[in-house]
Amino acid sequence: MDKGARVEERISRVAPLAVFAALVLLLWPLYGNRLFLGTNDEGIYLDAAERILHGQRPYVDFFGYMSPGSFWMQALAFRLLGVTLAAGRVLAIGYVALECALIYWLVERYASQAAGIVTTLFFLAFEIADPSILTAQHRWDSGALALASIALCVAAQTGSRNRWLAVSGIFAGCAALATPSIALVALVTLAWLGRRAAWYLLGLATAGTAAGVALWLNGSLPGLLRQMQWLSQNYAAVNSMPYGSIIGGYAALFKDASTWELAVRCCVVLCLTLPAVLPVVAIAGGGILLAQRKAGSDPLRRVMPYLLLSIAALAASAHPRSDVAHLAYVAALPYAVVGILVHRWLAPRPRAWVTVSIGVWAAIFAWQAKPPGSLRRLDTPAGNVRATAEQIQVVQELLSQVHPDQSLFVYPYKPLLYFLTQARNPTRYSYLSPGMMTAEDARLALCELQARPPDWVLFMDLDRSEFDRIFPFAKVRETHFPEIESWIQANYRAWNGPPLAGYSLLRRAVSR
């Protein structure tokens, strides 16, 4: 190997690390402590992780929504960096940077460095067009770890690198601990590895055994098994959405569009639906590549079946809520495969035109991540945050009344407010999702409220039309918990102040 080739090989090895580091340094100042009041899920993981730090056990002392992987990883971030909103974002930002680095590595490996850079930038631009996606979410954990597992399996195909397969198995096991359905990727990998699956199985067994022992030692294992049964019975009834659907429906995006606007809106919709479109394009394009009879040894053809099966498994893991928003968490591999195929099939000039055309839309979508106004800093019990002037006004009003030494109940669904105020939740539930939580869950929550009435309640009267917009295929008749709401109305009175993300602040009316 000559000197130039050695230098190029070194650059190829270092470049993914450089991509990872550069994106962490870019995204962290922009989104590390930016406040997103519109998100509903982030608080679930922040609240659960903080409870774990205080000695509470998931599924025993508090309601654990999912399997424990994401709770544990978030708790570790808090233990190392402190209980702040910024520490709560470390994992999400790191996962995005990791996925970008792996996209670059895959595309550069089977196409070119330029294609790797372009594909990575397109993924980043479209992925964070809605910046609230950069918040704590169990699907970030599972999606990024699964992609790392897949990349290690691909890398292990050259030479004898069985230890890499063991590490890949550990990553896959950790991914399944965050999102159980992502275990489909492990099944695909086992089938593809064949005789070499022993090392991968060793890694899977290591991760699974370690988690099982930890849960058994603290008495949480039976609770986890009951929670998995609860999810199988209750999750799909509310959260089912067809593949590629969006909240609000596609018809709303074309409503009242004039003739000249229609083409523009079609392009916008295509960009929005890339997480659903690209897996189909990748599988179809990869199938065509494999069907072509070509002489010689092509490294891509050897791994393409595995990549396509992994894409199918990742897409299937989003079921039953297979909408565009959830498919976005597993979109990195489809981006990489499509980037490779485009580079291989298009000549340089048409490829340049495609890059420019898509680049315009990518830039437009990336611009959407810009905050609606200037962001200001605000000190909160959850650390220093950055928010718009409007957000700061209502948050300051809330924090002037609700203090960390007080108790608070947020109803039905905004657990981020527990974390932001650091007030104590007297119940085991960080949220009560109508239609998903059972009558027994509501009864238990009410008993806990009656036993330890909170000082404050943040209450939202959930409108049926808003529920149907977010959960359009939910098989739910009642979107309220009448007994809990009646108890709140009988014991709490409105406190003057602007509503916060649709929630009104109520103060206990009876003496303690």
Q: Characteristics of this structure?
A:
512 residues, mainly alpha, four-stranded mixed β-sheet, two-stranded antiparallel sheet, 22 helices
SSE topology:
Blueprint: H1 3-31, H2 42-53, H3 69-81, H4 85-110, H5 113-127, H6 138-155, H7 162-178, H8 183-193, H9 197-217, H10 221-239, H11 251-254, H12 259-272, H13 274-291, H14 299-317, H15 324-327, H16 332-345, H17 348-367, E1 376-380, E2 383-387, H18 389-401, E3 408-411, H19 416-421, H20 439-451, E4 456-459, H21 464-470, H22 482-491, E5 492-494, E6 504-508
Parallel strand pairs: 3-4
Antiparallel strand pairs: 1-2, 4-6, 5-6
Helix pairs in contact: 1-4, 2-3, 3-4, 4-5, 4-6, 4-16, 5-16, 5-17, 6-7, 7-9, 8-9, 8-14, 13-14, 13-16
